[in-house]
Specification:
single chain, alpha+beta, 10% strand
Length: 191
């Protein structure tokens, strides 16, 4: 089997790592609040999501939101505004809690009782690579049946674990060509 790419882009190829494209797609499926956190509506939506129950508040504290309940009430009432550092902490906590909440649903939809989900591999962009250095990399599809480790690494926001899980549980099933799809322009799937 081929090894990992060590010098990607040397001849002008462009793309992103496959596990990063998978994380993007899972984020899109998670359905985050679309309004930016800098807008009042976006801030309120995130704060309501993080404070709607005792379980949500505990998860927000675990995810790094350390503001006191009094401060959060002031933010909700609009009497005080969070600093940039607090906005970043709210956004990070919101994404972590949202990932945790939708993980079970996504996992069930992606695994589909062992049938798996069809994944599209869109090859990397070689338009800037000179003709002698270009290689033939076609569009591929694959049915991925094991999503447990991939979704768990995505929930934990562990980039290395997601990379390992994606390569070991999905990409390696492409056979001897799996190394050509370490970098892609896009990974597509639905749940």
């Amino acid at each position: 089997m081929p090894d990992r790419n060590l010098d990607f882009g040397k001849f002008g190829a462009r793309g992103i790592k496959g596990h990063e494209a998978v994380a993007r797609q899972l984020d899109a499926l998670a359905g985050y609040v679309a309004t930016p956190i800098t807008a009042r509506r976006g801030l309120l939506a995130r704060l309501h999501y993080l404070t709607r129950s005792d379980r949500a508040r505990a998860a927000a504290r675990e995810a790094g939101l350390t503001a006191t309940p009094r401060t959060i009430r002031a933010w909700l009432a609009g009497t005080r505004s969070p600093s940039r550092a607090n906005l970043a902490a709210i956004e990070q906590a919101y994404r972590a809690v949202r990932r945790e909440n939708v993980a079970r649903y996504l996992l069930a939809r992606l695994n589909r009782d062992g049938r798996g989900t069809r994944v599209e591999f869109h090859p990397l962009n070689q338009s800037q690579v000179t003709r002698p250095h270009q290689r033939v990399v076609e569009y591929r599809t694959l049915n991925v049946r094991r999503w447990d480790r991939i979704v768990a690494a995505w929930v934990a926001d562990d980039d290395d674990a997601l990379d390992t899980a994606w390569v070991d549980d999905a990409v390696v099933d492409l056979g001897s060509q799996w190394g050509q799809y370490e970098y892609v322009s896009n990974i597509g799937f639905a749940a």
